[in-house]
Structure formats: C-alpha cells, structure tokens
Amino acid sequence: MNRAQLEQMDPHMLMSVLNSKLRAGFESLEALMRANDLEEVTLVYRLKQAGYLYDEEQNQFRTQEATC
C-alpha cells in the first residue's frame, strides 16, 4: 500500500484492508505505518473523517460509537 492508494481508496475499504493487515501480524498501527512508509497522522485523520477511530487495545479501527 502506498500513499497514492491510501488517498484514493474508499475509506470503508481502507479500514477493512488496514484491519486485515493489523490482524495478519503487525503489533501496532505504528509498526504497520513504518513498514509501509506511511504517515500515521494522515491515515488516522482520513479514517476519523469517515467515522473510524483506532483502538489501541484491540489493535484495529472501529466505528466511533464502538470505541466509546
């Protein structure tokens, strides 16, 4: 996944892809971002605009309601 794909991907699909990658072997969002040379701030902001927040305990993006 590169920056261009990140910017163009539907945010709901993006959340699904990232959660799959997190489950597949990344211990944190930071590790996933480092491995793919992506900016965490940009990603978190994009998904927050679509209603998703990163839940560090669960190591996944979830709807804002589910994280409250």
From TrEMBL:
Please give the InterPro entries that the UniProt record associates with this protein: DUF4250
Domain of life of the native organism:
Bacteria
Name the chain's protein: DUF4250 domain-containing protein
The protein's organism comes out as Salinispirillum sp. LH 10-3-1
